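Support request from a user on the community tier.

User writes: "When I paste my structure tokens into the form, the page sometimes reloads and wipes my input. The last time it worked, I copied everything first. Here is what I submitted, just in case something in the input itself triggers the reload:"
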């Protein structure tokens, strides 16, 4: 009797395990949402509305994006959304490169000059917009796969 109960328990475990209701796209979307939400919150905390744009603030935004990139690189997307995930990684890596180059090129500027350089650097706006576009592509693909997600990019 004990052997039958044990065998039944094993069979139930195998059947339940093979009939799992996990949703890889949903799980992926939840992971990415957590990462991008943290990225957005850290970026907002680095730059206060109405305050001058500072080198430290921009460094904070860059660091938040780099942490997000590292975290997203550790996420394995399901095949159905892998292309969009790869595109998001590429544009975040490009953002890091562009931002680091900008910071190096403005290293000698005083605070007012640095703020003006940030405001004048339309290519920074372009790369930030491209990050948003890549996030939107992930959201659209997840929606196509019946997973509603709002990434906080």
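"...and here is what came back when it finally went through:"
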């Amino acid at each position: 009797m004990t052997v039958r109960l044990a065998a039944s328990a094993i069979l139930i475990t195998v059947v339940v395990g093979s009939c799992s209701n996990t949703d890889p796209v949903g799980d992926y979307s939840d992971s990415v949402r957590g990462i991008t939400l943290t990225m957005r919150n850290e970026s907002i905390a680095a730059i206060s509305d109405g305050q001058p744009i500072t080198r430290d603030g921009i460094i904070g935004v860059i660091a938040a994006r780099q942490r997000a990139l590292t975290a997203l690189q550790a996420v394995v997307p399901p095949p159905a959304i892998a292309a969009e995930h790869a595109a998001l990684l590429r544009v975040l890596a490009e953002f890091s490169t562009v931002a680091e180059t900008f910071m190096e090129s403005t290293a000698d500027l005083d605070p007012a000059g640095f703020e003006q350089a940030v405001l004048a650097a339309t290519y920074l706006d372009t790369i930030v917009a491209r990050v948003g576009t890549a996030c939107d592509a992930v959201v659209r693909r997840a929606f196509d796969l019946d997973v509603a997600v709002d990434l906080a990019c």
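Agent notes: The reload is a front-end session timeout and is unrelated to the input. DSSP finds six helices and no strands in the chain. Confidence is low (pLDDT under 50) at residues 1-21. Escalated to web team.
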